[in-house]
Amino acid sequence: MRQIEVHAVNLLEDTGLTAKTDGHALRFIAVYGPVKPSEVARVLGLAPSTLTSLIDRLVGQGVVVRTENPKDRRSHLLATTEKGDALVVQMDDKMFAFEDELIESLGEGDLEAIHRLFERIGEMTGVDLRKDPSDDDRNHET
Q1: What angle is formed at CA 26 by the lines to CA 23 and CA 28, rounded to 5 degrees?
Q2: How confident is the model at residue 122 (pLDDT cuts 50, 70, 90)?
Q3: Residue 64 and residue 22: Cα distance in Å, rounded?
Q4: Going by C-beta distance under 8 Å and a sequence separation of 6 or more, which residues neighbour residue 17?
């Protein structure tokens, strides 16, 4: 898996994102936004200080905006800008092309084994990173 991570970072060098977590955070915000910063930190496993610098970078690049949370004026929500959405499309195009190439190189038995592996990991850990057990509304507006 580390090889894929390194390859992904190399594929995305020209996007302007300066850290590997920036792309993960941007994509998460694009898909689930607007979201609370705490949800981004929880899903990506980031410390508050790391999250603050990450958000500052994304806001500084003009790909994410902070907006007031209508449910709690003391907090903010994160959403992507048009520039951020375009960057996510660019990242996805590159990653999907790589994934397609990888999948085409695998046989049906390989794919079934990988699928079983990920199902088993989910069963054994009981962890669903997409759901915050302490917050049924998943911290975002619908």
Answers
A1: 105
A2: confident
A3: 11
A4: 23, 26, 61, 87
Q: Which CATH class is domain 2-125?
A: mainly alpha
The alpha carbon of residue 25 and the mean position of all alpha carbons in its chain are separated, in whole angstroms, by: 4
Helix pair angle (37-44, 48-60), 10° resolution: 120
| SS3 of residue 45 by DSSP | coil
103 in Cβ contact with 111 (< 8 Å): yes
Closest by Cα among 139, 142, 141 to 42: 139
| Rounded distance between C-alpha atoms, residue 15 and residue 3, angstroms | 20
Query: 10 Å Cβ neighbour count for 24?
Result: 18
Instruction: With 0.85 as the threshold, say if the pTM is over it.
Output: no
